[in-house]
Each structure stands twice: as C-alpha cells, then as structure tokens.
C-alpha cells in the first residue's frame, strides 16, 4: 500500500481545465487522478463504478438519497481528485474520512469555458480529452491510442453548459469559502492552462518531489 504523500483536490467550473491540470499533476508527481465525473459516467454507462489505483479507491453509487447521483469517497493515500467535493455536504463528508493537504481552484472566464466545451471531444472508454484548438487528436475524430471514435459529451451542448455553470456557482461558493478559511486554498485565474500550469507545478513541487520536470508535460 502506498504511503501518504499528498491529498489534493482540483475545483473549478465545467471546462475550467480540472481534468487537463489533474492529468498533468498525475504524470508529473506520480499521483493517481480520480475524476468523480468520469466515475459517474462509467457507472451510469453500465460499468461497475469502481475505480481502483495504488492505495486509493473511489466508489460511485447510483441509488443514494438526494439528487440523481451521489458519490461515496473512501480514503485515498495519495492522489489528486477532480469534481469532488462539489457541495458543502460532500466537503463535510470528506472531512470525516480524510484531511486534505491542498485545494487548487481554477477561475476561468465564462466565455472561455463556453468556447472550450463546444470544441471538446472525448474518448469515452478511457476518459481521454481532446480539444479541436488546444490539443487536437492526431487524426480528426479518432482517439490517438486506440483509434476508436471520439464523441461529444451530452452535457457539452450549449444549453446544458449554461445550466451546469449556474449550478456549479451556487454549490461551489461555500466549499471554496470553507477551504479558504482553513488556509489550504490556492486559486489560479487565467484563460490558458499552459500559463496556469507552471504555477500549479511550482506549488506542488514545494509539497512533494516531482517525477517529471515542468516542461516534460
Ligand atoms: P465532471 O466530468 O467533473 P465538470 O463539468 O465539472 O464535469 P468538465 O466539463 O469535465 O468539468 P474540466 O475537467 O474542468 O471540465 O475541463 P477539461 O476537460 O480539462 O477541459 C475542458 C476542455 O478545454 C477540454 O477540451 C480541454 O482539452 C480544453 N482545454 C483545457 N485547457 C485549455 C486551454 O488553455 N485552451 C483551450 N483552448 N482549451 C483548453 O462532472 C460531470 C457531471 O457529473 C456530475 C455533475 O452532474 C457534473 O456536471 N458530478 C457530480 N455530481 C454529484 N457529486 C459529484 N461530486 C459530482 N461530480 C460530478
Ligand atoms: Mg473533467
């Protein structure tokens, strides 16, 4: 079992680059990337909803009280998580099972988010994410590694995006305030992940030794 190195979550509105940043964190620091949204999609798509990595596990349940979905979080020993906690209730539930070392919050303008999401294509089986402007696949419409077709997420339709952004704003505010009051919140603002990334890398490097240099990502 891996020893505890770091427990971090990345918060931010839809399209803010949580997944993109977290993938880079995972590669650069040898951590596990856990995405609650990806687990939910896999679970609702017929998978067993269980993701497992060295020393960490996240379990998504379909039949829990509350809105349509719920997430149960089992302690992870080292890793970076996106999309969870998403509400104050989830933040408090997380408190009962582990103490976070670091919270990264991404602040990206609304117009930028809309543009990014309309150009996003994903490989459903792996969760790999592309963007026609930012990181296009080698061959249009096809996953680089498997050659399988890419799809657009249902919730990336413009009308769904506006509703997701509203919902996120309401739910996230108290979560962000909570972590700010604990002194573990680090906020990054901008319109480009490549400009935000070096700051995230520097912050994390002060907590754990990297396995890759900043430029290698
Ligand atoms: P998700 O899957 O967590 P969201 O809505 O929180 O969904 P999303 O849409 O996955 O977040 P992201 O991960 O923040 O966005 O962003 P990303 O995919 O990395 O980047 C977006 C796009 O921009 C990509 O195409 C990327 O390549 C591109 N990009 C990145 N940086 C740049 C850049 O600098 N420039 C450009 N041009 N492009 C860039 O959750 C989905 C749903 O599941 C439910 C909720 O309903 C949620 O809406 N859910 C939960 N429900 C209850 N509890 C929870 N804990 C839940 N978690 C999820
Ligand atoms: Mg994501």
UniProtKB/TrEMBL annotation:
Keyword Transferase appears in the UniProt entry: yes
Domain (Adenylate kinase active site lid): residue spans on this chain: 120-155
Source species, domain of life: Eukaryota
Keyword field: Kinase, Nucleotide-binding, Transferase
One Gene Ontology molecular-function label: ATP binding
Pfam families in UniProt: AAA_17, ADK, ADK_lid
Classification via InterPro entries: Adenylat/UMP-CMP_kin (IPR000850), Adenylate_kinase_lid-dom (IPR007862), P-loop_NTPase (IPR027417)
CDD domains, per database record: ADK (cd01428)
PANTHER family: NUCLEOTIDE KINASE
Entries under HAMAP family matching the protein: Adenylate_kinase_Adk (MF_00235)
Family: Belongs to the adenylate kinase family.
Protein name per its UniProtKB record: KAD4 kinase
Species the sequence originates in: Oxyruncus cristatus
Protein's gene: Ak4
